[in-house]
Amino acid sequence: MPSNDRSRKSPIPAGPDEAARRNGHSSAVPTRGCIAITADGAVLRTLKTSESLAREVVRTIIDQGLQPGDGLPTEGAMLEQYGVSRESLREGLRLLEVQGLISIRRGPGGGPVVGSVHPANLGRISTLYFHMAGATYNELFDAWMFAECILAERAARASDRTARVAAMAPYLELNEVRETPEELARFVQEHAMFHGAVASLVGNRVLELTLQTMGQIVSHHVATVDDPRIMHDLIADDHLRLARAIAAGHSGQASTFMRDHIEGVARYTRERLGARMDDLIEWQ
Ligand SMILES: [Zn+2]
Questions:
Q1: How far is the CA of 279 from the centre of ligand 1 (A)?
Q2: Which carries the bigger pLDDT value, residue 110 or residue 145?
Q3: What confidence tens digit (pLDDT) does each residue in 22-52 have?
């Protein structure tokens, strides 16, 4: 997240007034360069060899029902199978690697391995777009609240009561979760896991993936400049009542509790970060 060096954050000195006008956001003229969000022009284009190769690898993963950790053919086998250059093969695999969809083990016995489908990786690529478009952390928090309220509301409306109770079971009692984890990374992960459990109930994988990205970005960026563990008790209490509302199927209550929860975290973060909330969302 944000450093205080504002000058470093304006790599594109393109006219922001014009960008805002074309974007229909004339009341929120950015104070630095950004690229206007556009719906103009075709996004369809001819794929490069490496991109076609990446598609083939993905097709293989899906068609063969491979799972995270399963190995893919060696480089030599793939070169023969796909009939592409070594350069294109490596570039194609790299496209998938940066998305976390495969990992490449180096050394003897190494090779490509199936990775995972994680909203954090989708969030990471989103931050590139947010940054270029001039979006700020204030906007991110606004979007995060919107996303989480929808997830909580839909999770509580999930018709399968058994699934709701099972997903919320780890959070229905306070017990040992009162203990503040010593490691920041573990705290961040546990917090994200609760929100992931809520999202898993919405019954729509598009919503489950995309609406989790905002929270994932907040977790990763805020944790790099501040220690959110001070909010541990507040978060544990919030999660407890959210888990109970969702397990009981009270959708209105779930949405309200989630709004309160995100507002609480946002208020705390705003107090700590002050003007840095107006910084561009970093691509990281
Ligand atoms: Zn939370």
A1: 23
A2: 145
A3: 444 444 555 577 889 888 776 778 889 999 9
Ligand 1 centroid to Cα of residue 143, in Å, is 15
Give residue 235 CA to ligand 1 midpoint distance, Å.
6
Residue 162 CA, ligand 1 centroid: distance in Å:
22
Give me the domains of the chain, ranges plus CATH numbers.
Answer: 49-114 (1.10.10.10), 120-278 (1.20.120.530)
E strand segments, the chain: 102-105, 111-114
The CA 172 to ligand 1 mean position distance, Å, reads 14
Rounded distance between C-alpha atoms, residue 127 and residue 15, angstroms: 21
Query: How far away, in angstroms, is 50 Cα from ligand 1 center?
Result: 39
For the chain, the average pLDDT equals 85
How remote is the CA of residue 72 from the centroid of ligand 1, in Å? Answer: 36
Section 4-24 average pLDDT:
41
What is the 167 CA–ligand 1 centroid distance (Å)? 15
Contacts of 33 (CB under 8 A, 6+ apart): 10, 11, 12, 13, 14, 15, 16, 134
Is the pLDDT at 2 greater than 70? The verdict is no
**Per residue in 50-82, pLDDT tens?**
999 999 999 999 999 999 999 999 989 999 999
**Angle at CA of residue 272, ends 267 and 253, nearest 5°:** 20
Strand bridging mode 111-114 / 102-105: antiparallel
Cα of 68 vs centre of ligand 1, distance in Å, is 27
Rounded Cα distance between 249 and 267, Å, is 28
Q: What separation in Å is there between the alpha carbon of 261 and the centre of ligand 1?
A: 7
Tokens of 112: 């490509």
